[in-house]
Design a protein that fits this description.
Elements: E1 2-3, E2 6-7, E3 11-15, H1 19-30, E4 34-38, H2 42-63, H3 71-76, E5 78-81, E6 92-95, H4 101-114, E7 120-123, H5 130-134, E8 143-147, E9 157-162, H6 168-180, E10 184-189, H7 196-212, H8 218-229, H9 235-242, H10 244-258, H11 267-274
Helix pairs in contact: 1-2, 7-9, 7-10
Length: about 290
């Protein structure tokens, strides 16, 4: 199953049909892979079908050209299921579930019992240590971090994280899969938060403290970052895009992992998450997205 100098993975499992899981599944299907998309039940899976269909339609707007494959063609490559046993035929699995340790534990126990011994586990996590996740498996050398950015189909780079036991062969195969998806992997070593989120989560959290302390309104903070530093999005816009609940979970992981007060989540962030203001996916965060905004 050679593809250029890499290896072609025919069947790829994607665990979790949230924003990131849908993006990964869509990207894989658009690049010719057969995808096994797993979530808890039909309600979540039906929502995933609709989100992928809508994303493909929007892609033509962002790229200013028609997507290479129609929504129907892409969806025909995705098998939607709530049954982990379909991963018995997977060559590679990418996990995208919520950033909660107890949920990760449950997922990897199930994957261990159904996936073939040679199957690689790619961990799409914002902050949790890859080495720690690998300890849940019987194949730590085949566990690798693959930190995709949102929206997945439009982002050309993925942060690839080498855990303590991750083999060179696993890194090579992860890079081959990413190349087949049209992406470049940048390899870093494993510590909670890696490179991107050790910096980004601090920035977003501090921006939320600025709002809480009434130093500036969200739009002013974001405008300064865009116009002074050339950022495509400000930190609060970025938080809304990622999901404020994910920001909170990631900060909690970093705070627990390093025991450093600099990662203490802002009380306003906690309040917003408890109120259900999670950003784009809920329709409201620091900005209002209800009605397609």
């Amino acid at each position: 199953m050679k593809e250029g100098q890499g290896i072609r993975f025919e069947k790829v499992g994607v665990i979790g049909a949230g924003v990131m899981g849908c993006g990964v599944a869509q990207n894989l299907a658009q690049t010719g892979h057969s995808v096994l998309l797993i979530d808890l039940g039909e309600k979540q899976l039906e929502r995933a079908r609709q989100e992928i269909r809508q994303s493909i339609r929007m892609q033509s707007f962002f790229k200013k050209s028609k997507p290479a494959k129609s929504a129907s063609e892409v969806l025909s490559r995705i098998q939607f299921s709530d049954d982990y046993s379909i991963c018995s035929s997977a060559d590679f699995v990418i996990e995208n579930v919520v950033e909660k340790w107890e949920v990760k534990q449950s997922v990897y126990r199930r994957l261990n019992s159904v996936c073939p011994p040679g199957c690689i586990f790619g961990v799409n996590t914002s902050a949790i240590s890859i080495t720690r996740i690998a300890s849940l498996t019987r194949r730590p050398e085949r566990v690798v971090g693959m930190h995709f950015m949102n929206p997945v189909p439009l982002k050309p780079v993925v942060e690839v994280i080498r855990g303590h036991h991750t083999s060179d062969e696993t890194i090579e195969k992860a890079q081959a899969l990413l190349a087949a998806m049209g992406k470049e992997g940048i390899v870093v070593n494993d510590m909670p938060g890696f490179v991107s989120n050790r910096v980004l989560m601090l920035t977003i959290n501090e921006a939320i403290f600025l709002v809480q302390d009434q130093v500036a309104a969200p739009e002013v903070i974001d405008r300064l970052f865009k116009q002074c530093f050339g950022h495509a999005m400000g930190p609060l816009e970025t938080g809304d895009l990622i999901g404020l609940d994910t920001i909170l979970y990631s900060l909690e992981v970093l705070y627990e992992s390093y025991n450093d007060d600099k990662f203490r989540p802002c009380p306003l962030l906690k309040k917003m998450v408890h109120a259900g203001l999670h950003g784009r996916k809920s329709g409201q965060g620091f900005y209002n997205y209800e009605g397609g905004g």
